[in-house]
Structures are given as structure tokens and as C-alpha cells.
Design goal:
The protein is built from eleven helices and twelve strands. The chain has 325 residues and is an alpha+beta fold. The strands form three sheets. Strands 7-6-5-4-8 form a five-stranded antiparallel beta sheet. α1 packs across α4 and α5 packs antiparallel against α6. About 2% of the residues have low confidence.
Length: 325
């Protein structure tokens, strides 16, 4: 049925684009094979004018939603006709300078490890055919560093499509401090890559608030929900700022921890001071902000919180929760 409708819409669009004068519903009904076959008199009682009118109006609305400009013209004798003028449905010429072409090439190379690579390559080929400067190679390296955004998570593509189509989703998510995943019902807003990891920002229906999810912690399939969004999508979704805040990067305090020698290199990179304690331990002073307790738990027995007391208590609570499963 989907293929038949797509073919019918294509034939209707070609008919409206190919005519030099407005065509009436009767002429369109007699010219397009799908209409002729469906509404042939005596064809199981489906040949009524009302049925055709409803189908035609739906098809016309679908084409307009797809971007086709269809004009409605009334003739001198009062008959209504339809046509789609080519000049009204033609995109303006595409002109790109060297810098713009380089930016597009850079974007295409970023996605070469993802399933979007084929689409990006095809888009650049179409731009080349549409007038991309011949002396510009969009795939040429423009620096010593070659950008890549790895996309290995199976959840990326369904979430990307859900963000685009504004479709709520459901998936199982395992927090860093949890032994087992939990179901989440989310209205997805945006995807963003931060420090080699993909994150989804959206509205968590179960918690009634905005949340950010790391894609690598999504288990199983992402399933679409047949409902609409319940809250408006913000004009600006700050995924990086939110993740950075949760990781303690916007900290305005300091924490004192003990760390095993030759362990916890991400912590050492953020340390503002390091002192050797001996016996295989070092003392570090690190920025303390929201989410630091969750990060420290990931290092397990290699980290001991010394100060402040509330951070130590939060880490102990998380470790106990993990131990209980």
C-alpha cells in the first residue's frame, strides 16, 4: 500500500509539473493510472466521486507538505483546475565559495565512520553537479588533524531519527552506579558528541525533568512510542554544558582524595595539586562539582575520599547501592 501511494503521488506530481494549463479533477482522474484503476465504474463500488475527491484532496495535501507548490486556478466557466509551475518549484542556483565547500567536505569526513557516510557523500556529489567549484576538492585534507566522530552505538541512528521526527522513545538504561538497567521513557531533543562519547538530551517522562543519557549505557533496542511530545522542546539544548556540570567541570570547590599510584589518570589530569604519600598512594586535590561522586565511584577501590564529608558520604552510598545490586 505504501509503494502504491508513493507511485500515485509521484504520478500526480509529474502530471501537475508537466502541464502548461490547469487540469481539472476530471482530467487528472482520467490521466493517472492509479485513479483510473481505483475508481473505474463498477469496480467493487469504489468508483464514486466522493471517494475520488477525498483521495485527491489527501494526495494534494501530501504533495504540498512535501514542498510542491500547487496552484488552484478557476477558469472563465467556473471550473477549478490545478497545476504546479516549474518556476515556482525550482530551487535557486547553488553557489559555494572555497571556504563553504571546505566546511561541507569537513562535515562529510567527520561522518565517514557512521551510517551517514553514504548520505554525506551523495550530498556532496549532488552539490558538485549543481555547481561546486571545480578547483575545490571537498575531501582534501585541510589541516594536520583529521576529524572523526566515531558512532559505534546501535542506539545512535534510531535516536537521531526520533529527534528529527519528534517521536518519544523507550529504552533500557544502566546508570554508572547501577548493577542492572532500568526502562526509560524519553522525549528526545538533541544528540551531541562530547569527548569521544555520544549523549542524548531529552525530557524523562518518568522523572518529569530534563535528563542527559550516555548512549554507551543504553542496552537493547530503542523503541518508538506512538504518542506526541508532552513538553515543548527548548530553543537551545545545552548537552555539553549539562554533561560538563555533571562531571564536575563547573566546580567552584575542591575535594581531597587518595588515589593509588599508577591509577586514575583522568583524575590526575584534572588535579590541581598532587602529593606522594608512599605505600602506593598519592593525595590529590581535584575540582568538586555536581556529579563528582558518580565519577569517583567508577574508579572503585583505587580512590578514597578524604574531604569534604558530604562527598565521602555520597560515594559510600553509591558503592553500597551497587553492592546491593
Amino acid at each position: 500500500m505504501a509503494i502504491a501511494k508513493a507511485e500515485r503521488l509521484m504520478n500526480l506530481a509529474l502530471c501537475l509539473l508537466g502541464t502548461r494549463r490547469p487540469l481539472s479533477k476530471r482530467e487528472l482522474r482520467d490521466s493517472i493510472e492509479a485513479y483510473v484503476e481505483t475508481f473505474r465504474p463498477g469496480n467493487g463500488g469504489t468508483g464514486s466521486d466522493d471517494s475520488f475527491n477525498r483521495m485527491f484532496e489527501r494526495d494534494k495535501d501530501d504533495l504540498r507538505e512535501l514542498g510542491l507548490v500547487i496552484e488552484t486556478v478557476e477558469s472563465l466557466d467556473g471550473e477549478i483546475g490545478y497545476l504546479a509551475r516549474r518556476d515556482s518549484n525550482r530551487l535557486p542556483p547553488i553557489t559555494l565559495d572555497a571556504e563553504e565547500a571546505a566546511a561541507l567536505g569537513l562535515a562529510a569526513k567527520v561522518w565517514q565512520q557512521a551510517r551517514l557516510a553514504g548520505a554525506a557523500s551523495g550530498a556532496l556529489q549532488k552539490l558538485r553537479a549543481a555547481g561546486l567549484p571545480e578547483d575545490v576538492d571537498p575531501y582534501e585534507a585541510h589541516g594536520a588533524l583529521e576529524p572523526r566522530i566515531p558512532v559505534h552505538e546501535a542506539a545512535f541512528e534510531p535516536l537521531m531519527l526520533a529527534c528529527r521526527d519528534r517521536r518519544p522513545v523507550m529504552f533500557d538504561y544502566r546508570k554508572a552506579t547501577a548493577a542492572h538497567p532500568e526502562p526509560r521513557h524519553v522525549e528526545p531533543w538533541a544528540l551531541e558528541c562530547w569527548r569521544g562519547h555520544w549523549y542524548l538530551a531529552g525530557f524523562d517522562r518518568d522523572r518529569g525533568a530534563e535528563r542527559v543519557f550516555r548512549l554507551s549505557r543504553i542496552t537493547g533496542k530503542v523503541r518508538s512510542r506512538g504518542t506526541s511530545f508532552t513538553v515543548p522542546v527548548p530553543d537551545v539544548v545545552t548537552v555539553r554544558e549539562t554533561v560538563a556540570s555533571w562531571a564536575g567541570e563547573t566546580a567552584d570547590r575542591s575535594a581531597l582524595i587518595r588515589l593509588r599510584t599508577d591509577a586514575g589518570y583522568p583524575l590526575r589530569a584534572k588535579a590541581t595539586a598532587v602529593r606522594e604519600l608512599g605505600d602506593g598512594w598519592d593525595e590529590l586535590e581535584i575540582p568538586y562539582g555536581h556529579g563528582l561522586d558518580a565519577w569517583l565511584v567508577e574508579f572503585g577501590p583505587d580512590v578514597v575520599v578524604l574531604d569534604p564529608a558530604e562527598l565521602r558520604a555520597d560515594v559510600v552510598d553509591r558503592l553500597r547501592a551497587v553492592a546491593k545490586g
